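Hey,

Quick one before I head out. I ran the complex with adenosine-5'-triphosphate overnight. Inputs first:
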Amino acid sequence: MSSPAGPPEAAGAQGAGGAGGGSASGDGASGDGASGDGAGGGRDAASLVVEDLVAGYGEVVALDQVTITAGAATITAVLGANGAGKTTLLRAISGMVRPRSGRVLLDGADRTGRSPEDMARAGIAHVPEGQGVIAELTVEENLRIGMMSWRGLAPRRADRAAALAEAYDRFGALADRRRKLASTLSGGERQMLVIARALVARPRVLLLDEPSLGLAPRIMTQVMDMVVRLSRENGITIVLVEQNARGALAIADRGVVLNLGRVVAAADAKTLATDVALRHHYLGFLAGAAQEDRAT
Ligand code: ATP
């Protein structure tokens, strides 16, 4: 995928940091309370706003004035070529990378610069790229690790059991393998396990970094279907980083395209998917493909 010298004049395209006035779907970012810290874990949908974020590594500026708005219970696809800054964006939201400037707002409450533990307690779960299961532990032990970041202190045994039951209900393949070592799982099952592990913490916002990477098309479809259900049925706000732009835009409400650390486009997913110039310059999938996807 080549990177042109400058952004195309794409529909919905905006300059770096220009999303602040955009018509993000479900712009429910107002509100001033840190409602995410309440008990009852993960049942109330949360909006996430990233405002003029600057972050990087040493001299590398990986994010340059990035603004995105993820409405409550929506799916926002974050797209772009290698090195665009997608992973850094998720790391900055989850507290793994400390922003140099800008803000991260959860339901309007400023969470900028908080630790990963604080962000997890506030309801943000991050599933990094690369299927990070602990191979030497069983499926169930991996899931129990997810509870360690539970909001609130000392979850009761009954709550833990309920969370496990919920996970097994959602991911039947994991239920069958609960006593097996994670090393024995297929790629798709491992991906399910890392997502399930994030979900037992009952997040309100789920950051997914390339969940379809390396999966067979059929399994990829299952993962994408599950992402849709998590948003639609469970009210989880999802930020989905994907190299598979076509697949991500097919399920997303909204999309953001990064290039060299800057937002070059932000619009509803359908608009991005049908934008020929944008696809050609940044997304690299074939003309007509997106329309066919959405027509089915
Ligand atoms: P990919 O799709 O290849 O994963 P990406 O869009 O997720 O790429 P990032 O991984 O966020 O992009 O990288 C953004 C920039 O930051 C790149 O220039 C990358 O080389 C640099 N970078 C990422 N991680 C580090 C690091 N740990 N130390 C130094 N530079 C880094």
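Residues 18-131+203-284 form a domain with the Rossmann fold fold (CATH 3.40.50.300).

Talk tomorrow,
K.
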